[in-house]
Amino acid sequence: MTTIAFIGLGIMGSPMAINLVKAGHTVSGYNRSPEKARPLADAGGRAAESVADAVTGAEIVALMVPDSPDVQHVLTGDDGVFAHAAPGTLVIDFSTIRPDVTRDLAAEAAGRGLRYLDAPVSGGEAGARNAALSIMVGGEPADFAAARPVFDALGRTVIHVGPSGAGQTVKAANQLVVAATIEALAEAVVFLRAYGVDLEAALDVLGGGLAGSAVLAQKRANLLGHSFEPGFRIALHDKDMGIVTSAAREAGVVLPVGALVAQLVASANASGDGALDHSALLRVVERLSGSDRP
Amino acid sequence: MTTIAFIGLGIMGSPMAINLVKAGHTVSGYNRSPEKARPLADAGGRAAESVADAVTGAEIVALMVPDSPDVQHVLTGDDGVFAHAAPGTLVIDFSTIRPDVTRDLAAEAAGRGLRYLDAPVSGGEAGARNAALSIMVGGEPADFAAARPVFDALGRTVIHVGPSGAGQTVKAANQLVVAATIEALAEAVVFLRAYGVDLEAALDVLGGGLAGSAVLAQKRANLLGHSFEPGFRIALHDKDMGIVTSAAREAGVVLPVGALVAQLVASANASGDGALDHSALLRVVERLSGSDRP
Amino acid sequence: MTTIAFIGLGIMGSPMAINLVKAGHTVSGYNRSPEKARPLADAGGRAAESVADAVTGAEIVALMVPDSPDVQHVLTGDDGVFAHAAPGTLVIDFSTIRPDVTRDLAAEAAGRGLRYLDAPVSGGEAGARNAALSIMVGGEPADFAAARPVFDALGRTVIHVGPSGAGQTVKAANQLVVAATIEALAEAVVFLRAYGVDLEAALDVLGGGLAGSAVLAQKRANLLGHSFEPGFRIALHDKDMGIVTSAAREAGVVLPVGALVAQLVASANASGDGALDHSALLRVVERLSGSDRP
Amino acid sequence: MTTIAFIGLGIMGSPMAINLVKAGHTVSGYNRSPEKARPLADAGGRAAESVADAVTGAEIVALMVPDSPDVQHVLTGDDGVFAHAAPGTLVIDFSTIRPDVTRDLAAEAAGRGLRYLDAPVSGGEAGARNAALSIMVGGEPADFAAARPVFDALGRTVIHVGPSGAGQTVKAANQLVVAATIEALAEAVVFLRAYGVDLEAALDVLGGGLAGSAVLAQKRANLLGHSFEPGFRIALHDKDMGIVTSAAREAGVVLPVGALVAQLVASANASGDGALDHSALLRVVERLSGSDRP
């Protein structure tokens, strides 16, 4: 079993760290707001006092924080991982951040004798709790192999997709597809409702054919019940769409629907729905159509 | 068992008519180009000489033709169904056409003592061959119940979604979702390829999480192999997106992504890819990005 | 001077008919709501009792009504123009309607020995009052020449753009460009306001360079003052964008921005702003951005 | 008269520097490729050997370079402006770059006792040659007043739009409006051509009404003649649209049409048209519509 530091114990990080404890690993967790470390401590982990405290003695340092600057701060800050991790430590960044930032950090890690994997996840809070995440990993094959037991304790679909940064690229593509699928379903729902169709029956048909998707299966209740407890928050998906569009620009790739969906997610966020589940894109379409829920 | 006239024996209609024969029904099929009736005849059906010939003696008249004007012509023409069907005959239109045209034709049918269901399908050629279609039905519940054995011989998901026209409305919503999902995946593929990610692995991850969809499962080989034999043709999906956008306009519903995707499907059609599978939306994204397949 | 029947005395038609009186023509005006004929009568025209009454004795029959079905009704109805106009009468349709409907009506007119020009206008209520409209005319050159004195009493830019229907096509293109320009300016205004820039100074710069436009010059006060008295109503522009998108679809032309702008105009309409000036597209952008006017 | 260093003597910078000479100023110009300094030298300016050489003794340092990193390099590099400019020197950055980078550089300049204006321009090569640029200036009013003689030698519309960065913000808004206007006209042209309308007459009408714009006046010949010599290059407009979309994201502003137009400009660039005038957006619309120029 492995000694693991886990930095970032939020809605995703906390259940992930707990699943690592359950799998038999020794886990020291750190979170800026210390009360968020309590569930981990209750589950048998240790609440560390600082990043340095968590990292000391760890063979693997896992991160799950919101955005690129957070990862940069946790890794390169004075009290950061790079300053305190022993040579040879394997850093696994589960956060979803910009692929170019990932590549820079991986290079800096290598320069300090550390190993680095980017391993963003998909599957939301439910996936984190149920150890059913999809994990898309970029980095050296040997490091991937070494991290395999950790990944297997957290996810169901664990795939090495390429060199450093590739995990983030695949995650970006994932978020593009997810947002577009939610938006398409939201538009379909508003359309069907306007025509007075039996919406439950209609979604049954859609779900049984080529229009079927994991989004439809998992977000159906949200769309039908107009209930948007996260799940995965609009504010985070908005951040991710910023990654998608800037990464596409860097690569000279044209994403007309991706760019438009990014604007609609930004609209959800700007309209004050940032804390709702991303299925609340439905509310953007409803506002555009001047329709409120009956 | 039932005596059925089947008008329109194309890529979809022919295997559907054959499945009705296999289910024990007596089927007279008619197609404008008579050679398309041969597979039905070989399977034990009868190749009719005309719509009138097919319709005479039929308890159920099924249609599967390309567009609104075709349905209008087959039903209301001088040699049409309405002119030759016996009172009480149940007309089932499997074609995908405009909901408002459907409602008008259903009203006219009622005026002539005929019964009418709109029953557009989803699932493509494979679904038609394997009797695995999704069928979304609009019309009277009693007529739906009467047609149930026919539907069950053709599809796996058969759902009554509302009154006359509702089937078409749901089909329009289905086509919106399918096109948007294909487009999103096409954008993801071009994005991932630009970053040199392992594309097969990446699609495995996407397919295993919230980005998973029937489109990804069924069109994956097309996208990876850049092979676009239909399946479901761009030209037909273009027609369907015209139905979606005009029906949305009629209902005062705003579909930003639907409208944009409609333009991209129109672009595929305008660029000469009308006869390819709708997964050829990938080629639109590639042209926009100035990338050809390696 | 000419005897003219003028059907449709609304916000546009009334000042146009009055300008024809001022130019010395004999004008009989008809409007469904008879009180709308009063300004014309006060200006020296005649308020007719019916279409037939207006048309009888007229050398030219002018129409200015809202939409395709209105034109069809006024022309082909039992009390309509075609039923009462003397052979050789020149029908001039100033309405903005679908090019295909125009071509059908022109053909029907020709079959009855009537002449027909489509002559949609641009310039709004101010242009109508000040005889400063742009008029885009489709039809026979000889008919255009004959109608020239009428056009010159109404507009400043009067151009024959092609055969029957061409006027409507150019008007559709005009409405596409105008809506897109308003939308782009609306987005610029919300963007500039978010950055706390001196908005008046900023619009001065934009107006002085390549971003300058008639829209900016004429709608600047609306955008700055957030005052949206029409001008040209959103509901009419929404109708026009429906013409643009369906005409583009018919011609196999792909208009990504046109299609998206059409959705945004539809959103303005669906949100209850149909009676406001089309510069109220600003309110759609504000809603999307979650910003109200300070 | 003033002693001016001018860094960046490209398609825009060279005629601007020459106009400063013509206005009686003493100008030392520097360009990385030294042969580009020849026209300035021929016109009576001095070709400097290095940034340091140009800056030494200058009261004003003007920059006109392509992008944010270029400005950063010229200002903050070892051989850069900040290292060699005397305290009190006024730096005027005519480049179009990110507003946030501008604000950072202005702060750094202030820390070194330098004054700083951002003064991006609009009007293209022709505007630069004819001293007819629009100049949008951000910074201290006193610095703006001091720079006035320089601005007046270069532009016709010179406006102080706010504090540091405001010039860049207004320029971003300008580029958004210009690109959207070009795209709308390009779509209109393809639409009109598909209908066989007299295109010159049609553009006359559009130009005479609410669809009229500086873009239509100045780019009409490009659109009609399908000739795309710059003018203002697609590659630069693509860079600018990246600034627009990222600045909008930073401010939480939703720009649906801006985002889509950015993708279309990116498509022009990705398709190999980066060196053409931005009116070559027409070619994107033509490719989408499968139409080549007749």
Automatic annotation (TrEMBL), chains A, B, C, D:
Lineage of the species this protein comes from: Bacteria, Bacillati, Actinomycetota, Actinomycetes, Streptosporangiales
Ranges for domain 3-hydroxyisobutyrate dehydrogenase-like NAD-binding come to: 165-284
Please list the GO terms describing molecular function.
Answer: 2-hydroxy-3-oxopropionate reductase activity; NAD binding; NADP binding
Q: Looking at the Swiss-Prot or TrEMBL record, what is one Pfam family this protein matches?
A: NAD_binding_2
Q: From the Swiss-Prot or TrEMBL record, give the protein name.
A: 2-hydroxy-3-oxopropionate reductase
| Domain of life from the UniProt record | Bacteria
Question: What EC number(s) are associated with this protein in UniProt?
Answer: 1.1.1.60
Q: Return the similarity comment.
A: Belongs to the HIBADH-related family.
Asked if the Swiss-Prot or TrEMBL record annotates the protein with the keyword Oxidoreductase, the reply is yes
Q: Name one GO biological process term.
A: organic acid catabolic process
> Which InterPro entries does the UniProt entry name for this protein?
3-OH-isobutyrate_DH-rel_CS (IPR002204), 6-PGluconate_DH-like_C_sf (IPR008927), 6PGD_dom2 (IPR013328), 6PGDH_NADP-bd (IPR006115), HIBADH-like_NADP-bd (IPR029154), HIBADH-related (IPR015815), NAD(P)-bd_dom_sf (IPR036291), Tartro_sem_red (IPR006398)
Task: Identify the residues that the record assigns to the 6-phosphogluconate dehydrogenase NADP-binding domain, covering every copy.
Answer: 3-162
Task: Note whether Iron occurs among the keywords.
Answer: no
| Protein keywords | NAD, Oxidoreductase
